[in-house]
Specification:
The complex is a heterodimer. The model of chain A has no long low-confidence stretch (mean pLDDT 81). The termini of chain A are far apart. Chain A has helices at residues 2-14, 16-38, 42-62, 66-91, 106-126, 143-151, 156-177, 188-197, 234-239, 245-248, 250-260. Chain A is mainly α. By secondary structure, chain B is mainly alpha-helical. In chain B, helix 1 runs antiparallel to helix 2 and helix 2 packs antiparallel against helix 3 (56-86). Chain B is elongated. Chain B starts with a helix and ends in a 13-residue tail after the last helix. The model of chain B has no long low-confidence stretch (mean pLDDT 87). Classes of the chains: A mainly alpha, B mainly alpha. Chains A and B meet through helix 2, helix 3, helix 4, helix 5 and helix 6 of A and helix 1, helix 2 and helix 3 of B.
Chain lengths: 282, 99
């Protein structure tokens, strides 16, 4: 990390190095942001957002803000994104977007508004001419020391308010996550009664166990050869990760083909088959 | 290199984040888009600090990070609570205040 930051700050001094970093990582960040907008699964969006945040951390370090760069990696990609992934794990993967528009034309209107906003921002700031003074003088006693001097002098009230904010946030999260049990815990008898009144009292069938495929994502085959939906987890079904035991494996089709062939002993037309009827009385 | 490029990138990321808030229906993705907008403003703050030659922009970006962390904690707790009662993380599901 320190080697990378030293390398980055050394590159930032030259200016062409900074340009190389920018033109390498800015397209990555912009494409990742577009991908985040378009991804169907929320997990992919979260991973792309983590990529954007890492790119921004590199930009901070390249712009003489090493403290903010490290904080960006630790707080955003380390804590915030892990919190997002944790909540995604709790909420479940089947919470995809519904493609139904509740407000008609809202999608087009939103897209137009976003594009107009982007045009307004980009062409608006295109007219502004700002100089580049650089942070060499402000950072001369160290970036962290300079930030600390400002934070504990001019911004000390904001700093104190931040502590109150963090305590309030922690308390609020505890309040929201806490759940009072308002009904008695179900006993084993209650669960048993509910199960026998339900649609399927027997234990659910296990997933398919085949010679080649022995995994929870392969459904079991019923006696007539159709896959049983009860034998795989509904979460895997919602995620679209269930393997079709008949399409994926050519072995099963080969076995079926041989079974259906008249030369096979299991075929009804085979002479050794018990149901075989030659037409002559036995 | 002209530091205005960072501002352009920041504006682009902010617009993409706002498009995500407006277009997506999944509450968690909407929330991630809000985070993207906050990150874009942070990039602008850091760039302005470098343009103006003082550290105030970096201090403000730091405070934005703190506020964003607190906001994520509360927002995800609210999403979890809504999901527990409605079994859905879609922003269209939580429309009870309409009636």
């Amino acid at each position: 990390m320190s080697g990378a930051s030293m390398l980055l700050s050394a590159a930032a001094e030259t200016g062409t190095g900074e340009a190389v970093i920018f033109w390498l990582l800015a397209p990555v960040a912009a494409l990742a942001a577009t991908g985040m907008l378009l991804m169907k699964k929320a997990v992919h969006s979260a991973l792309l957002l983590a990529l954007i945040m890492l790119c921004l951390a590199v930009f901070y370090i390249a712009q003489d803000a090493p403290f903010l760069g490290v904080v960006q990696v630790v707080v955003y990609t380390g804590a915030v994104m892990m919190l997002f992934l944790f909540v995604l794990m709790l909420v479940g993967v089947d919470s995809g977007d519904s493609l139904v528009e509740t407000l008609r034309g809202q999608r087009v209107a939103g897209l137009v508004a976003a594009l107009g906003f982007a045009a307004l921002l980009i062409f608006g700031i295109g007219d502004v001419v700002m100089d580049d003074q650089g942070l060499a003088r402000a950072n001369e006693e160290g970036n962290v020391e300079g930030l600390a001097n400002l934070m504990f002098s001019r911004y000390v009230f904001a700093f104190e308010a931040t502590s109150a904010l963090l305590i309030t946030a922690a308390l609020g999260a505890m309040m929201l996550a806490h759940r009072e049990r308002i009904e008695a815990r179900l006993t084993q008898r209650d669960l048993s009664v509910r199960r026998f009144r339900g649609p399927y009292p027997a234990p659910l069938p296990g997933p398919g166990v085949y010679a080649r495929h022995n995994a929870v994502d392969t459904p079991a085959l019923l006696p007539d050869g159709t896959p049983s939906d009860l034998s795989v987890s509904p979460i895997l079904t919602a995620r679209g990760d269930v393997r079709d035991p008949r399409s994926g494996s050519t072995e099963i089709r080969e076995i079926e083909r041989r079974r259906d062939h008249p030369d096979h002993p299991d075929h009804p037309d085979h002479p050794d088959h018990p149901d075989h009827d030659e037409g002559e009385p036995r | 290199m002209n530091p205005m490029n960072y501002i352009y990138l920041s504006a682009l990321l902010f617009s993409i984040g706002s498009a995500g808030v407006l277009l997506r229906r999944n509450a968690i993705v909407v929330f991630m888009s809000v985070e993207l907008m906050l990150n874009a403003t942070n990039l602008a703050f850091v760039t302005f600090a470098r343009m103006n030659g003082n550290l105030d922009g970096q201090v403000i970006a730091f405070f934005v990070m703190v506020v964003a962390a607190a906001e994520v904690v509360i927002g995800l707790a609210i999403i979890m609570t809504i999901f527990r009662t409605r079994r859905s993380a879609s922003v269209d599901g939580a429309n009870l205040l309409k009636y």
